[in-house]
């Protein structure tokens, strides 16, 4: 029979690579806890209308990239989530999570977009995101940015630049929209067919174009920051002052607009030059109207999403590997008849907090001592615990260090194993 393989652009994450994922997730959970963010887990499948309404109908994600299908049982239009801010907001609205006050939430999980797979861009990709809901002040914009900045510090990543902009408020964008249409209309011959199609539907998206032939026209286009009113400018200035007070460098990028329509005021991206064209590792901003768009009572929000694959690749590029768990003990067992005596000892080691790999038998019996020590060494274990005939007959175990030749081999009574384990665990 033909071998069944994974869907193109949807990758298996195998050991030992998966250990780096676990290490990153553990570090993120620790940082989230320090900022008082709580975990939320939402479904992978959501109503298609959630993303059409939340992200904007005239966006690349909705028009081209979503995995959408019809439920065969009831005909409901469903979509594999292409991002999770809309899903978090849907859950907050559905369960009235803001009834008792604002919430700080974070999530981890897979997202899906039908794109051409390439470095740093996959059809199933993973995001870690933070959403602060019910907070309208610029200090929370700064707080979520500072949280991402702390993550880079904890990971030892230095080649990441913060770019920031303001999209203002709807009435300011409306004036800018009219100016954009007028500008691009006067240069219509320079626009590609996609830009011409979107010109009157969503002219802000033209600023995202990567078409080299359009770049001079885009560079000359009116800048949204020039249309901001005093309140929007004051909001951005407050965010920037707070970043400066923490010594966080930034660049104002007036062309930064983001790919979803729900943003207003602050938008930002953390970018790197180390990953080629897929240089954005974390991005987000403020979305004060999304909760109302999804059916809730008007309430502000701000957050970001981080691309896990890109961050892990950046860590690899930086040659600063994440600390991953080390196996503590490999149990060398020379006869399967010893297992009733050995396995309770191994259980006591695990209960003490040590990680233990047990040699398993084969149809021919237990492998030779030499073979087992070879496996013990390749496992990365710190110690081999040897259960041979002499040890079993005397109620003892021999402990051999596999990583430090200066540590002498010792034989101790099985009754002393718990004390030894406690010392190793500490």
UniProtKB/TrEMBL annotation:
<comment type="subunit">
    <text>Homodimer.</text>
</comment>
<dbReference type="InterPro" id="IPR015807">
    <property type="entry name" value="His-tRNA-ligase"/>
</dbReference>
<comment type="similarity">
    <text>Belongs to the class-II aminoacyl-tRNA synthetase family.</text>
</comment>
<keyword id="KW-0030">Aminoacyl-tRNA synthetase</keyword>
<keyword id="KW-0436">Ligase</keyword>
<dbReference type="InterPro" id="IPR033656">
    <property type="entry name" value="HisRS_anticodon"/>
</dbReference>
<keyword id="KW-0547">Nucleotide-binding</keyword>
<keyword id="KW-0648">Protein biosynthesis</keyword>
<keyword id="KW-0963">Cytoplasm</keyword>
<feature type="domain" description="Aminoacyl-transfer RNA synthetases class-II family profile">
    <location>
        <begin position="21"/>
        <end position="323"/>
    </location>
</feature>
<dbReference type="InterPro" id="IPR004154">
    <property type="entry name" value="Anticodon-bd"/>
</dbReference>
<dbReference type="Pfam" id="PF13393">
    <property type="entry name" value="tRNA-synt_His"/>
</dbReference>
<dbReference type="Pfam" id="PF03129">
    <property type="entry name" value="HGTP_anticodon"/>
</dbReference>
<dbReference type="GO" id="GO:0004821">
    <property type="term" value="F:histidine-tRNA ligase activity"/>
</dbReference>
<dbReference type="InterPro" id="IPR004516">
    <property type="entry name" value="HisRS/HisZ"/>
</dbReference>
<keyword id="KW-0067">ATP-binding</keyword>
<dbReference type="InterPro" id="IPR006195">
    <property type="entry name" value="aa-tRNA-synth_II"/>
</dbReference>
<dbReference type="InterPro" id="IPR036621">
    <property type="entry name" value="Anticodon-bd_dom_sf"/>
</dbReference>
<dbReference type="InterPro" id="IPR041715">
    <property type="entry name" value="HisRS-like_core"/>
</dbReference>
<protein>
    <recommendedName>
        <fullName>Histidine--tRNA ligase</fullName>
        <ecNumber>6.1.1.21</ecNumber>
    </recommendedName>
</protein>
<dbReference type="InterPro" id="IPR045864">
    <property type="entry name" value="aa-tRNA-synth_II/BPL/LPL"/>
</dbReference>
């Amino acid at each position: 029979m033909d071998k069944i393989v994974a869907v193109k652009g949807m990758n298996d994450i195998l050991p030992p690579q998966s250990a780096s994922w676990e290490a990153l997730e553990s570090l993120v959970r620790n940082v989230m806890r320090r900022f008082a963010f709580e975990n939320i887990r939402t479904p992978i499948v959501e109503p298609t209308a959630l993303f059409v309404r939340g992200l904007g109908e005239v966006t690349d994600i909705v028009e081209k990239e979503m995995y959408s299908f019809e439920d065969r049982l009831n005909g409901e239009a469903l979509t594999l989530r292409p991002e999770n801010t809309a899903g978090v907001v849907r859950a907050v609205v559905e369960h009235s999570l803001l009834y008792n006050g604002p919430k700080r939430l974070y999530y981890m999980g897979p997202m899906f977009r039908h794109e051409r797979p390439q470095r740093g861009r996959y059809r199933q990709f993973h995001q870690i995101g933070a959403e602060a809901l019910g907070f309208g002040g610029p200090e929370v914009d700064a707080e979520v940015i500072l949280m991402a900045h702390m993550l880079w510090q904890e990971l030892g990543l230095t080649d990441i630049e913060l770019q920031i902009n303001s999209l203002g408020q709807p009435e300011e964008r409306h004036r800018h929209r009219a100016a954009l249409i007028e500008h691009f209309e006067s240069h219509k011959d320079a626009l590609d067919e996609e830009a011409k199609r979107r010109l009157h539907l969503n002219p802000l998206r033209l600023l995202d174009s990567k078409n080299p032939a359009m770049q001079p026209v885009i560079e000359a286009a009116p800048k949204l920051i020039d249309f901001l009113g005093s309140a929007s400018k004051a909001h951005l200035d407050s965010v920037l002052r707070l970043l400066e007070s923490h010594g966080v460098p930034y660049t104002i990028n007036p062309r930064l607009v983001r790919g979803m329509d729900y943003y207003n005021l602050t938008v930002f991206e953390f970018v790197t030059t180390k990953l080629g064209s897929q240089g954005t590792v974390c991005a987000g901003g403020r979305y004060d109207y999304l909760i109302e768009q999804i059916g809730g009572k008007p309430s502000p929000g701000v957050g970001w999403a981080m691309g896990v694959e890109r961050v892990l690749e950046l860590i690899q590029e930086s040659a600063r590997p994440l600390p991953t768990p080390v196996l503590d003990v490999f149990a060398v067992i020379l006869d399967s008849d010893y297992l009733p005596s050995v396995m309770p000892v191994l259980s006591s080691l695990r209960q003490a907090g040590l990680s233990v790999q047990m040699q398993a038998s084969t149809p021919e019996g237990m492998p030779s001592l030499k073979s087992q020590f070879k496996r013990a060494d390749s496992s990365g274990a710190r110690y081999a615990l040897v259960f041979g005939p002499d040890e079993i007959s005397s109620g003892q175990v021999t402990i051999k260090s596999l990583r430090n030749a200066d540590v002498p081999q010792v034989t101790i009574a099985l009754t002393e194993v718990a004390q030894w384990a406690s010392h190793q665990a500490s």
